[in-house]
Amino acid sequence: MPAPRTILLTGAAGGLGTLMRSLLPEYGYTLRLFDVRPVEGEPDAISADLGDKVALREAVRGVDAVLHLAGISLEAPFEKILRSNIEGTYNLYEAARLEGVPRIVFASSNHAVGFTPAPRAGEPLIPIDTPRRPDTFYGLSKSFGEDLAQFYWDKHGLETVSVRIGSCFPEPTSVRMLSVWMSPADGARLFHAALTAEEVGHTVVYGSSANTRLWWDLTTARALGYDPQDDSEPYAGKLISEQGELDPENPAHGHLGGHFVNDPPIWPY
């Protein structure tokens, strides 16, 4: 696929959106920003809700692709998840279909497979086709998003790369995160690959750096042209000294979804 020139970045005011606002322009993208909250320092950003179908149609009109990061990113009552992550994602896809946008990169999550047991030492990496086992209503909404993406590819020819993001922060903050961490620079590399790879149809990939303690298989991400450069291991000594090694008998340590399986953080808004 020719490199997109203009992409719509939804969720531009969020943590990941803020990181990508500074990193993706280095790849030659012009960003059109969208968020329900004002985007600091960006007076031209579109401030609207994913339920605003008119605003979404206007936002996607003329863009080459969409990087969809918007929505609730923690656990919340189902009614809130339904409106933002399920109905909102549908609204975006329908707007993209109507305006002829050829590709969406969808921020899925490890929480779509959160109840999958974490591999122990010597066990194989978790494959991309492992059965989905969402750990929360949030994870359930990401499973829906992946199915919606498949439907829009099969029915309408709208391509998607669904990225099951681990944790994208400047540095990992827990021992568990050593296995699923994606550096911001690697996040930009992966999103760039997802935006430019040829003939993706609907492709699901795991999103992380090439961590020494990696839990999942990055084969489908690498097939897009993703070449991760970072590893969480330099942070391991400090985190383990502060928090101790993972206990596989602890549900929060023994599953891909971490503490989302037994004590999920709640969306504050």
Reconstruct the topology from this structure.
Layout lengths: L5 E5 L4 H9 L6 E6 L10 E2 L5 H8 L4 E4 L9 H22 L3 E7 L27 H20 L2 E7 L11 H4 L3 H13 L5 E6 L11 H5 L12 H8 L7 H4 L15
Parallel strand pairs: 1-2, 1-4, 2-3, 4-5, 5-6, 6-7
Helix pairs in contact: 1-6, 2-3, 3-4
In short:
Helix content is 35%, strand content 14%. By secondary structure, it is an alpha/beta fold. The chain is globular.
Provide a descriptive summary of the structure in words:
With 269 residues, this protein is an alpha/beta fold. 35% of the residues lie in helices and 14% in strands. The protein has 9 helices and 7 strands; from the N terminus they run βαββαβαβαβααβααα. It has helices spanning 15-23, 53-60, 78-99, 137-156, 177-180, 184-196, 219-223, 236-243, 251-254; strands at 6-10, 30-35, 46-47, 65-68, 103-109, 159-165, 202-207. A 7-stranded parallel sheet has the order 3-2-1-4-5-6-7, sandwiched between helices. Helix 3 links the parallel strand 4 (65-68) and strand 5 (103-109). It is globular. The model has no long low-confidence stretch (mean pLDDT 97).
Strand content: 5-15%
Mean pLDDT rating: 97
Helix content: 25-40%
Let me know the largest β-sheet: 7 strands, parallel
| Helical segment count | 9
H/E series: EHEEHEHEHEHHEHHH
Q: Strand order of the main beta sheet, please?
A: 3-2-1-4-5-6-7
Shape: globular
Whole-angstrom Rg: 18 Å
Specify the structural class. alpha/beta
Number of strands: 7
